[in-house]
Amino acid sequence: xxxxxxxxxxxxxxxxxxxxxxxIAGLLGVFLIIDWMQQRNVRALAWWGSAYLIGxxxxxxxxxxxxxxxxxxxx
Length: 75
Known about the structure:
Helices cover 60% and strands 0% of the residues. By secondary structure, it is mainly α. It has two helices and no strands. It has helices at residues 14-38, 43-62.
């Protein structure tokens, strides 16, 4: 017997997905920096955490709906 159920699919748009990606990357970066502060002899944690924070800020700037700085074309 086949049941007919009206299923509504929710869609995730690009701004929502980019916000989630930026928040997760920033959170991972902060966690790695905190771990490095607890174990200062492991410098890879600091490099890895700062790379995550730089990547999160780059994703945030790239996914902005309007540009922060308007660049005019030189004629």
